[in-house]
Write a sequence for this structure.
């Protein structure tokens, strides 16, 4: 056996025979097939994992919605129980108050009866003494004495009348504010607003209703084309239509120039070309005073559209400064505390000093059945610069119904509590995007969160709806959107051309 045969036999024994060309190609193809199968298997596994994760998230969402609904139901029941308990306590307190007042009246009547009896007995004793004196021959002295007493009584009565007159005069100087009111009433206006309110029907979704509200405002200035009116932000928040009523009962449409939710302040604008000449002559801007110069106990005058009945006037005094008041929406403000009655509808009205100067904007957001004689106003010195800034802003006029915009999105109006729990950014939550709608064409996807529209930050679906009313269909807007990618939210910017709502009904 030669050397070549020996090497061949050794290679065969060790399984290392040279591979032919066709065998090498076949082995490469088999290897590629195995890799493709493994890759396909891995992709299938990833799809199954993604589907499982989607089902898990959907189930979590469903459970969270159910939990939220149960929580709302529980809180509503708790609220009703607390309201019922408060009502019972209030009725009980009224009964106690009635009994207390009745007892006090009985005590006063008893006291008056006792005093009357005492005076009658005293007069009787005096008459008996006079008769006895006449019988003993001292009638002349008695008559002189009686005349003297009569004269003295007349002097005392006249002095008492003078004292009462003086008191009435002093009281008039504090409570008769008719001269001041007649000078400033033309600076105060009534405000009527129309808005759309969404009411939840539980599992059956929600319905929208038209709501009407009332408030007040103060004319603070203007220019050749506009009149500017200061009011509270909560008076015009979400309003689709604003009407201002002047002192002569003339009604004119108004629009929002600018607003500051943080300061509960808004400035309205009125196109002077829509105001009659007679009305222009009848109204004037208020004189701005200083709330920094107020003193505790100083008299104040509140004018506003109380309860929507028209302009009313109440008086009181400054009861406190920089009162920190937290309202139902969670905002906190430092306000003037006054004893003048402030009722719903007074919001945005004028708080004046004894000179008729504007020293505050009435604020009627705070209310409590257990609190009486407490009103609040925004001190004018803290907002005078903000009012000027808002007055110079470009007007924001809601578009007409024919031009109302359309996105083509179904939103999930989640609560901030839900969003915070699941780490979702604040904004308008996209639940579904309609086919062939402006939103789909722009690239918005389900589960996106819209956080900004043309530079205006949005913290909820309601914010988006409120902002859209100022943008007509056919215009391009810039949206900032948070999109969930690889486990975290990434911000992207999307250009979107708004559609017309009338075209999609």
């Amino acid at each position: 056996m030669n050397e070549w045969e020996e090497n061949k036999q050794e290679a065969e024994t060790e399984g290392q025979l040279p591979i032919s060309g066709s065998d090498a190609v076949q082995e490469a193809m088999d290897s590629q097939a195995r890799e493709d199968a493994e890759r396909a298997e891995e992709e299938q596994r990833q799809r199954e994992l993604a589907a499982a994760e989607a089902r898990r998230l959907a189930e979590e969402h469903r459970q969270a919605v159910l939990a939220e609904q149960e929580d709302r139901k529980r809180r509503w029941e708790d609220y009703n129980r607390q309201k019922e308990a408060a009502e019972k306590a209030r009725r009980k307190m009224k009964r106690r108050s009635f009994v207390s007042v009745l007892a006090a009246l009985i005590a006063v009547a008893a006291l008056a009866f006792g005093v009357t009896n005492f005076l009658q007995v005293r007069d009787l004793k005096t008459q008996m003494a006079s008769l006895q004196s006449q019988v003993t021959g001292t009638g002349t002295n008695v008559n002189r004495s009686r005349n003297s007493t009569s004269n003295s009584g007349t002097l005392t009565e006249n002095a008492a009348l003078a004292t009462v007159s003086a008191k009435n005069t002093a009281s008039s100087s504090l409570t008769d504010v008719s001269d001041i009111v007649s000078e400033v009433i033309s600076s105060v206006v009534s405000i009527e607003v129309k808005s759309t309110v969404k009411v939840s029907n539980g599992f059956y979704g929600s319905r929208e209703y038209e709501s009407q509200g009332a408030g007040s405002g103060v004319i603070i200035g203007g220019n050749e084309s506009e009149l500017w009116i200061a009011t509270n932000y909560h008076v015009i928040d979400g309003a689709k239509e604003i009407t201002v009523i002047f002192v002569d009962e003339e009604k004119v449409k108004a629009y929002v120039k600018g607003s500051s939710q943080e300061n509960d302040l808004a400035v309205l604008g009125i196109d002077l070309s829509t105001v009659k000449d007679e009305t222009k002559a009848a109204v004037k801007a208020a004189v701005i005073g200083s709330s920094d110069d107020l003193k505790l106990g100083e008299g104040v005058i509140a004018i506003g559209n109380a309860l929507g009945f028209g302009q009313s006037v109440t008086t009181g005094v400054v009861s406190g400064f920089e009162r920190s008041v937290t309202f139902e929406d969670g905002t906190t403000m430092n306000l003037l505390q006054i004893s003048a009655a402030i009722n719903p509808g007074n919001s945005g009205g004028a708080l004046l000093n004894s000179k008729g100067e504007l020293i505050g904007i009435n604020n009627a957001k705070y209310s409590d059945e257990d609190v009486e004689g407490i009103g609040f106003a925004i001190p004018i010195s803290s907002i005078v610069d903000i009012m000027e800034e808002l007055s110079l802003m470009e007007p924001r006029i809601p578009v007409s119904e024919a031009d109302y915009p359309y996105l083509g999105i179904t939103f999930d109006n989640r609560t901030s509590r839900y969003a915070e729990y699941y780490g979702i950014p604040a904004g308008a939550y996209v639940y579904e995007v309609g086919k062939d709608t402006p939103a789909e064409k722009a690239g918005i996807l389900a589960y996106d969160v819209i956080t900004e529209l043309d530079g205006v930050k949005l913290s909820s679906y309601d914010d988006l709806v409120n902002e859209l009313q100022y943008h007509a269909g056919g215009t391009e807007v810039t949206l900032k959107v948070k999109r969930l990618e690889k486990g975290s939210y990434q911000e992207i910017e999307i250009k979107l051309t708004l559609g017309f709502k009338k075209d999609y009904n």
